[in-house]
Design brief:
alpha+beta; 6-stranded mixed beta barrel; 9 strands
């Protein structure tokens, strides 16, 4: 079956993501995402261990989904911005009883405050196959969540997955060729 979503192998740094985004014109849009375990708490609730994904703001556009409530992340939240959180529909229902006033509430992730900006639709489970996450954090809040201000610039932190959506009229063959050019350049410039 034909799909217009192309996933690059796991294990890219955030600078690698930028290189693929800038070097592969066959993509309509491209996103980077990284699963991360957190302790997630809220006023009146005991924190629990769960999974979230750090994502570039383009994540939901690549997935072609809109928010059920509130909004998703702004483009400027790729590398900076306030700590925000989008809840998965299932987690919103299970943990918060589907509270219609959830947008604007503050939750804690690993002890840090994050404001809920939206809830994903029920039909959207995320882009990570086989993993149900409780929500999404913009990549610009990586330093807050991980406590590492250098993580987004670290070429030696290959923790990100990359996925892109093909431009209309592009083929798998054309995107593979462009990806190979970028991959070969990265191997030559940044050998491990």
């Amino acid at each position: 079956q034909k799909t217009d979503l192309i996933e690059l192998p796991i294990g890219h740094s955030f600078p690698d993501f930028r290189d693929y985004r800038d070097g592969v014109s066959a993509f309509e849009d491209i996103t980077a995402f990284m699963p991360n375990p957190v302790h997630l708490g809220a006023r009146g609730l005991t924190p629990e261990r769960t999974w979230v994904e750090l994502v570039t703001p383009s994540y939901f556009e690549v997935a072609k989904v809109g928010a059920q409530m509130g909004s998703f992340f702004e483009p400027n939240q790729e590398t900076a911005g306030p700590p925000a959180f989008v809840l998965s529909h299932g987690y919103w229902q299970r943990r918060f009883g589907g509270d219609p006033q959830i947008v604007g509430q503050v939750l804690t992730l690993n002890g840090e405050s994050f404001t809920v900006v939206g809830v994903a639709p029920e039909s959207f489970k995320g882009l990570s196959w086989g993993m149900a996450v409780s929500g999404w954090v913009p990549s610009g809040a990586t330093a807050v969540l991980l406590g590492d201000a250098t993580f987004l610039d670290n070429r030696e932190a290959p923790a990100w997955r990359i996925m892109g959506r093909l431009q209309d009229g592009e083929t798998l063959k054309s995107v593979r060729a462009q990806v190979e050019v970028v991959a070969e350049r990265l191997v030559a410039e940044y050998p491990f």
